[in-house]
Write a structure and sequence with these properties.
Helix content: 40-55%
Strand content: 15-25%
Structural class: alpha/beta
Order of helices and strands: EHEHEHEHEHEHHHE
Bound molecules: NADP nicotinamide-adenine-dinucleotide phosphate
Largest sheet: 7 strands, parallel
Radius of gyration: 17 Å
Number of domains: 1
Number of strands: 7
CATH topology: Rossmann fold
CATH architecture: 3-Layer(aba) Sandwich
């Protein structure tokens, strides 16, 4: 499909956590669907290489390295995106981090803080800087925040991660309510087990978890990153124009079936 006909044609989309996994798959897909993409992650070499790949494929992309936990970094990325591409229509706030599933009383304050800083403050910082430019442009916008099955249930993931991903859903609902009359939609993705670097790390630490992750899905498999990215692309597009405040499960039936 040519990018002029894609479901994100003419849009500018910021994607965090674009250096690997779901975010990298989203970067490629959003660009194929016609968006100019603004990629953020800490590993600059990775997002720069991805920009080269997307450009070689005829897409529009730029990379700005930064830490989502730092408000100034997120502001810098949003500003750079608007300076380069003129506006911001969509955001996939996807960067996240999980420690291994230690019992609550064994989680250190440092791990709790890092989990909250990356997953909750990261989404907070994104919303705080993305929403004003969307309001100012008068073009409206669509924000998609990456939660997890752990955002609805205690899955065996760390208590800090469970709390953080619940908070992502709370922030998403609040944003949907605050901006419903001002043209900005906000939705969360309830992501199930997906084959990414995060998953590889978890399975290297505790190989026995693979069987239970697979067993939880009625499809008896994990997701490919692209399957999650496809839901994000639809939610960022105008095709989902009456969808806001929802927590969309992309979890192979774990929470729905
Ligand atoms: P991944 O491959 O490890 O990707 C995580 C991404 O987040 C990387 O691009 C990483 O980039 C970025 N990131 C982490 N901390 C960051 C920070 N402080 N600032 C900026 N970027 C940061 O894992 P993934 O599975 O694709 O994860 C994507 C999202 O899906 C996360 O929110 C995760 O919680 C969620 N999720 C994943 C699963 C799963 O089974 N994989 C299930 C449910 C939910 P840098 O390291 O380069 O900064």
């Amino acid at each position: 499909m040519s990018s002029e006909q894609g479901m994100l044609a003419g849009k500018v989309a910021m994607i965090t956590g674009a250096s690997s996994g779901i975010g990298a798959a989203a970067a490629r897909l959003f660009a194929q669907e016609g968006a100019a993409v603004v990629l953020m992650a800490r590993r600059e070499d990775r997002i720069r290489a991805l920009v080269e790949e997307i450009r070689a494929d005829g897409g529009r992309a730029m990379a700005v390295a930064g830490d989502v936990a730092l408000s100034d970094d997120v502001e810098r990325v949003v500003e750079a995106g608007v300076d380069t591409f003129g506006h911001l229509d969509a955001a996939f706030n996807n960067a996240g981090w999980a420690s291994s599933g230690t019992a609550l009383h064994e989680i250190s304050d440092e791990v709790f803080d890092r989990t909250m800083d990356t997953n909750v403050r990261g989404v907070w910082n994104c919303l705080r800087h993305q929403v004003p430019v969307m309001l100012k442009s008068g073009r409206g916008g669509s924000v998609v925040n990456t939660s997890s099955v752990a955002g609805l249930q205690a899955t065996g993931a760390s208590a800090a991660y469970v709390a953080a991903k619940h908070a992502v859903i709370g922030l998403t609902k609040a944003a949907a309510a605050d901006y419903g009359l001002r043209g900005i939609r906000a939705n969360a993705l309830v992501v199930g087990s997906t084959l990414t670097e995060m998953m590889q790390t978890i399975l290297e630490e505790t190989p026995a978890l693979e069987e239970s992750f697979v067993a939880r899905s009625v499809q008896k498999r994990m997701a490919a990153p692209l399957e999650v990215a496809q839901a994000a692309a639809w939610l960022c597009s105008d095709r989902s124009s009456y969808v806001t405040g929802t927590s969309m499960a992309v979890d192979g039936g774990v929470t729905g079936a």
